[in-house]
Amino acid sequence: MSIRPNSLRIATWNINSVRARIDIVEQFLRDHQPDILCLQETKVANDVFPHTLFDAMGYHHRFLNGQRMHHGVATISRVPLEGAWRYDWQDNGEARHIGVRLAGGVLVENVYVPAGGDVPDRTLNPKFGQKLDFVERMTRWSEALSDPAVIVGDFNIAPLECDVWNHKALLDVVSHTPIEVEALARFQQSHDWVDLARRFVPEPEKFFTWWSYRNNDWRASDRGRRLDHVWCSPVLAPAVSGFEAVRDARDWGKPSDHIPQIVTLDL
């Protein structure tokens, strides 16, 4: 692994319970050594977060927004971070966001967008409406954003045709419906966010970050979706020198159904 001078490596991963999968978190930190790790779906209250491992591995800076058994985000770092803020874009107290600031002023926003249930109709499925409203509140925040930022996390939306295994088959499936794609496009346009994965893996190449547990052989079927994203402010885009998706993590131990991604910034 080549590390550039003055580079900063930021990783994002929906871990689907940090305590249940602490062994593969350790493996990831040992093998890939990001400077900052943004976790989603930690499923743990702040007072019982597993601090011991992170201290032992030198990740002494931890900012948590946890919730017992559900949701939850955590930003863990071996470099100093300033402050922390927690936006309630869900508008119901769920733990789905935490933001921090790097010493140089860049914001790192860690977000877990709701999945939205199974029926893509807010009148029949309130969870779908909550998801759309979440993205709308996030968009209002983004419109007023003046600081350079990196936003990462599980957006639970696969926006492009090549972000899913079969575009036509998934048009009516929550995560790839036109209404969700349009909502995420408005969010992206609100700050001219740069989609870093697609900068390094240009469309129309298929690229996924999630595969259902229902697939007995996820590699063979490869019925994935790109639900997890790493975006940055346009002013930061020239500083981005690398991107990696750790696809093999989908096979580690008791795996998450998501894989980690790492972006390198030369700051």
Keywords:
Deoxyribonuclease I, Chain A, six-stranded mixed sheet, 14 strands
Question: Would you write up a description of this structure?
Answer:
The chain is of the alpha+beta class. It has a single domain (7-266), classed as Endonuclease/exonuclease/phosphatase (Deoxyribonuclease I, Chain A), CATH 3.60.10.10. Helices cover 22% and strands 26% of the residues. Strands 3-4-2-1-14-13 form a six-stranded mixed beta sheet. A hairpin with a 4-residue loop joins strand 6 (97-102) and strand 7 (107-112). The protein is globular and about 45 Å long. The mean pLDDT is 97.
Strand order, largest beta sheet? 3-4-2-1-14-13
- Overall body shape: globular
Radius of gyration: 17 Å
**What is the helix/strand order?**
EHEHEEEEEHEHEHEHEEEE
Provide the structure class.
Answer: alpha+beta
Mean pLDDT: 97
Number of strands: 14
CATH architecture, by name, is: 4-Layer Sandwich
Strand content: 25-35%
Main sheet makeup? 6 strands, mixed
What is the CA–CA distance across the termini? Answer: 19 Å
State the domain count: 1
Helix content: 10-25%
How many separate helices? 6
CATH class category: Alpha Beta
What is CATH's topology name? Deoxyribonuclease I, Chain A
Low-confidence spans: none
Write the CATH homologous superfamily.
Endonuclease/exonuclease/phosphatase
